[in-house]
Specification:
There is one protein chain. This protein has 193 residues and is an alpha/beta fold. The chain has one domain: Rossmann fold (3-Layer(aba) Sandwich). 37% of the residues lie in helices and 19% in strands. The protein contains 7 helices and 6 strands, in the order E-H-H-E-E-H-E-H-E-H-E-H-H. The protein has a 6-stranded parallel sheet. The longest helix has 17 residues. The radius of gyration is 16 Å and the shape is globular. 40% of the residues are buried. It comes from Gluconacetobacter dulcium. Pfam families: Isochorismatase (PF00857). Keywords: Hydrolase. InterPro entries: Isochorismatase-like_dom, Isochorismatase-like_hydrls, Isochorismatase-like_sf. This is Isochorismatase family protein.
């Protein structure tokens, strides 16, 4: 893990920490993942930095070899976990693809706020988190990944993304490492002005 710096206007993106997903079998216990994501969200909010809460409400069209769920999801499936303590200033994005940037207005919302870097956390490491990080990198954002604030249903996918993909998209670190590098509220406010 090699985390060097965070830009003055960095946004946190928390991917798919929602009721319908956190109850699925995962490679790591979900409670610490949620706790780290909440700690990051609180730290970003305390500095008036953008917090993006993403949920997924479907999937991209197209044929796949692996069967995907069909039919309506159970009531509450897309509800964000209450531990994230969603606030009125948070940006909420509902996606229907793996990544949070494809077919949403997330990039425009971040650019309008002067964001140049993102920190990504959530589930699943090898799909929603990785796709969001790839799309952000391709859009020109600096990318940081909070490795202790993510998990996957497949341990091998989680490990592969952290070991082999994420170092090519940005920098990785723990939530504590990231919070230690966050700009002061004054620095973040001046950079976004």
């Amino acid at each position: 893990m090699a985390l060097t710096t965070l830009d003055p206007v960095t946004a946190l993106i928390v991917v798919d920490l929602q009721q319908g997903i956190v109850g699925l079998p995962l490679a790591h216990p979900i409670e610490p993942v949620i706790w780290h994501a909440r700690s990051l969200a609180d730290a970003f909010r305390a500095r008036a930095l953008p917090v993006v809460l993403v949920n997924v409400a479907g999937s991209a069209p197209g044929r796949t070899e692996q069967q995907r769920p069909t039919g309506p999801r159970p009531t509450g499936w897309t509800d964000l976990v209450p531990e994230l303590d969603q606030l009125p200033d948070d940006i909420v994005v509902t996606k229907r693809t793996w990544g949070a940037f494809a077919s949403t207005d997330l990039e425009a919302q971040l650019r309008a706020r002067g964001v140049t870097q993102i920190v990504v956390a959530g589930v699943a490491t090898g799909t929603g988190v990785e796709a969001t990080a790839r799309q952000a990198y391709e859009a020109g954002f600096n990318v940081t990944l909070a490795c202790d604030a993510m998990t996957d249903s497949r341990a091998e996918a989680h490990d592969y993304s952290i070991r082999s993909v994420f170092p090519r998209l940005g920098e990785t670190g723990t939530s504590a490492d990231i919070m230690a590098l966050l700009p002061t509220r004054e620095d973040a406010g001046h950079a976004g002005a």
